[in-house]
TrEMBL record:
Listed name of the protein: Olfactory receptor
Keyword entries, A-Z: Cell membrane, G-protein coupled receptor, Membrane, Olfaction, Receptor, Sensory transduction, Transducer, Transmembrane, Transmembrane helix
Family, similarity comment: Belongs to the G-protein coupled receptor 1 family.
Residue span, G-protein coupled receptors family 1 profile domain: 41-290
Subcellular location: Cell membrane
PROSITE patterns per record: G_PROTEIN_RECEP_F1_1 (PS00237), G_PROTEIN_RECEP_F1_2 (PS50262)
Record field: transmembrane: 25-49, 61-79, 99-120, 140-162, 204-226, 238-261, 273-292
Organism: Canis lupus dingo
Phylogenetic placement of the source organism: Eukaryota, Metazoa, Chordata, Craniata, Vertebrata
InterPro entries the record matches: GPCR_Rhodpsn, GPCR_Rhodpsn_7TM, Olfact_rcpt
Length: 317
C-alpha cells in the first residue's frame, strides 16, 4: 500500500524509559555496568569451556553456544539503548529498525530451541548415562547446535519482512527502548489482523513448541530421578540440571509475560520492564547461575586463572 497524501516514515523515535536527564544518566551507568558484567561473564564461560579439558562434554558445548548467543542477543539492543540514554534525539532509521527487529527475533527464537536441546542433553545424561557419550556424539551435538541457530531464520525473516512492508504513513514514535514487533505494529496505518494472526501462530510455534520439548524432557528426567534408589544419587542428578531449569524459567517466564498476555492487560511501562528483564537482566544472570551452581565451572575458572597467573609470573624479565 502506498501512502496517499502522506510521506512514508523514514525514521522512528524511540521514547525509551524517561525524559528526565538525571534519571537517564543514572540508567546509563546502571545499564553500562550490567552490560559489562554480561559481556565479561559470558566471555568467561566461552573461554573456560573452550580451553579446559574437563569441560569438553556436550553439556558445556551447548553452554558455550548459549553464552555466545547471549552476547549476540544483547549486542542487538543494549549499545543502541545506551547511546539513546545520553542522546537528545533518540532516532533509529527505518532500515535500522528492521535490522534490529530481525536479529531480535532471530536470536530470541534460536535461544528457545537451544534451551530445548540442552534439556534433551540433560535427559540423556540422567536417563541413559552409560550410553551418553555414544548418543550425544560430536556430530549430533554439532547438528543440534546448528539447527538451533538456524531455527531463528524463518520466523525472523517472515515477521520482519511482513511487518516492515506494511504502510507507515502517520506517527513515528515508538513507545519502547528498541524496535520490538508489538510497539512498531501500532504505527501501521492499515488493518493488521492478518499479520497479528500470523504473529500469534509464529509465537506459539517458536516459543511453545520448544517449551513443550523442554517439558517432555524434564518430565522424563523427574520420573527417572524418582526411580533412583539412593537419595544421594537423586540429589546429584537433580543438581546437574538445576541451573538449566532456572535459566529456562527466567527466559520463558518473562517472554510469556510479553508475548502471550492479552493486550488489554499490558501498559507500555510494564512491557518495557518485562522486556528489560529478558533482554538485559537474564543474559547477565545466566553465566552467574551456571558459575555459582556448578562446581565443575568454578573449578575450571580457578584452573584457568591459575594457569594465567603462573604463565605471567614465569615470563622472563
Amino acid at each position: 500500500m502506498i501512502c496517499e497524501n502522506h510521506t512514508r516514515v523514514t525514521e522512528f523515535v524511540l521514547l525509551g524509559f524517561t525524559n528526565n536527564p538525571e534519571m537517564q544518566v543514572s540508567l546509563f551507568i546502571l545499564f553500562l555496568i550490567i552490560y559489562t558484567v554480561t559481556l565479561l561473564g559470558n566471555f568467561l564461560i566461552i573461554t573456560v569451556t573452550s580451553v579446559d579439558p574437563a569441560l569438553q562434554t556436550p553439556m558445556y558445548f551447548f553452554l558455550r553456544n548459549l553464552s555466545l548467543l547471549e552476547v549476540c542477543f544483547t549486542l542487538v539492543m543494549v549499545p543502541k539503548m545506551l547511546v539513546d540514554l545520553v542522546s537528545l534525539r533518540k532516532i533509529i532509521s527505518f532500515v535500522g529498525c528492521g535490522i534490529q527487529m530481525y536479529f531480535f527475533f532471530f536470536f530470541g527464537s534460536s535461544e528457545c530451541f537451544l534451551l530445548s536441546m540442552m534439556a534433551y542433553d540433560r535427559f540423556v545424561a540422567i536417563g541413559n548415562p552409560l550410553r551418553y557419550s555414544v548418543i550425544m556424539n560430536r556430530s549430533l551435538c554439532l547438528w543440534m547446535a546448528v539447527g538451533s541457530w538456524m531455527s531463528g531464520v524463518p520466523v525472523s525473516m517472515l515477521q520482519t519482512a511482513w511487518l516492515m512492508a506494511l504502510p507507515f504513513c502517520g506517527p513515528n514514535t515508538i513507545d519502547h527502548f528498541f524496535c520490538d514487533g508489538p510497539p512498531v505494529l501500532k504505527l501501521v496505518t492499515q488493518d493488521t489482523t492478518m499479520y497479528e494472526m500470523q504473529a500469534l501462530a509464529s509465537t506459539l510455534l517458536f516459543i511453545m513448541f520448544p517449551f513443550s520439548l523442554i517439558l517432555v524432557s524434564y518430565t522424563r528426567i523427574i520420573i527417572t530421578i524418582l526411580k533412583m534408589p539412593s537419595a544421594t544419587g537423586r540429589q546429584k542428578a537433580f543438581s546437574t540440571c538445576s541451573s538449566h531449569l532456572i535459566v529456562v524459567s527466567l527466559f520463558y517466564g518473562t517472554a510469556s509475560l510479553t508475548y502471550l498476555r492479552p493486550k488489554s492487560n499490558q501498559s507500555p511501562e510494564s512491557k518495557k520492564l518485562v522486556s528489560l528483564s529478558y533482554t538485559v537482566i537474564t543474559p547477565m544472570l545466566n553465566p552467574i547461575i551456571y558459575s555459582l551452581r556448578n562446581n565443575e565451572v568454578k573449578g575450571a575458572v580457578k584452573r584457568t586463572v591459575t594457569r594465567k597467573v603462573l604463565k605471567d609470573t614465569c615470563l622472563p624479565l
